[in-house]
Amino acid sequence: KAGVTQTPRYLIKTRGQQVTLSCSPISGHRSVSWYQQTPGQGLQFLFEYFSETQRNKGNFPGRFSGRQFSNSRSEMNVSTLELGDSALYLCASSQGLAGGVETQYFGPGTRLLVL
Amino acid sequence: EDKVVQSPLSLVVHEGDTVTLNCSYEVTNFRSLLWYKQEKKAPTFLFMLTSSGIEKKSGRLSSILDKKELSSILNITATQTGDSAIYLCATRDNYGQNFVFGPGTRLSVLP
Predict the structure, then answer these.
(1) Is A41 helix (H, G, I), strand (E, B) or coil?
(2) Nearest residue of B to residue A6, measured between CA atoms
(3) Can you tell me the distance from the alpha carbon of B10 to that of A110, in angstroms, rounded to the nearest whole number?
(4) How do residues B99-111 score in pLDDT, each as one tens digit?
């Protein structure tokens, strides 16, 4: 089974621009979660999508948004980029079963640098 | 607010040493605790713990959950340089929706 894939792997943008990151989950997985990882804040949960609906959301401003398509692929968008948005963005997929007893599998991440 | 704390935040040992990494949590509707190893990019899954007192083992790594103490430990015996990584602890709630990660423990194993 292919793993979680993310594109692009690296991205350089300037302040004020917007960016779209893509994540393709493991085949059969319906849940995709997005995380931001920075040296100072660690791994922080952005949001989770399940069956094309945002099911859970972390404490990030509205500039961060996402969506999920019918094939479970997900995109994350950040508008009006700020320097502090420079980070590694990880997505993780799982089957999305209720009960909290399954793990997530992470993609390789997209490293975003905002200049 | 749900919180996961790990200690130590950083650890330097020599090959052959045994290390114990700690994770404690304050989580509403706790259901499971997971350990991940992160070397360069993506965290890779190590263990998932749901029941107290049952040790999970994989080679030189083992982990156990103590629900009474709201904590877990990850043990690595006979450490190797390849064990150098950040070890992340995360909890998941009963609804299976909310992942909360700790800050990680950065382990450096010197030859």
Answers:
(1) coil
(2) B42
(3) 25
(4) 789 999 999 999 9
